[in-house]
Amino acid sequence: MGETLFCSGLIITLPTIATQLYISFDQQLVGRLSNVIQLNYYAYPQSLARAVIAVAGSVSSVLMPKMAKMLSDRDDGHQAW
């Protein structure tokens, strides 16, 4: 049970970490290959994307304990709701 829950959490967490690394290295690369104006056109939508990622990460952090509780109750034979 604990191993399954760990794997589920890892499946949710790993893409978030990979996305954050991609975003931070991506802006560095664009900054080196272009001028300041082009970087600003690129950086603003990226900051909006980061905000969406932060909201998704917050929601998953809040919902994960509740989902784990529901799964453990269901495995024990109790009603999940």
Characterize the structure shown.
- This protein is mainly alpha-helical and 81 residues long.
- It is 89% helix and 0% strand.
- The protein starts with a helix and ends in a 6-residue tail after the last helix.
- The model has no long low-confidence stretch (mean pLDDT 81).
List the defining traits of the structure above.
single chain, 81 residues, mainly alpha, 89% helix, 0% strand, elongated
Would you report the number of β strands? 0
Radius of gyration: 19 Å
Shape: elongated
**SSE order, one letter for each helix or strand:** HH
What can be said about this structure in brief?
The chain has 81 residues and is mainly alpha-helical. The protein contains two helices and no strands.
Annotate the secondary structure layout.
Elements: H1 2-33, H2 36-75
Helix pairs in contact: 1-2
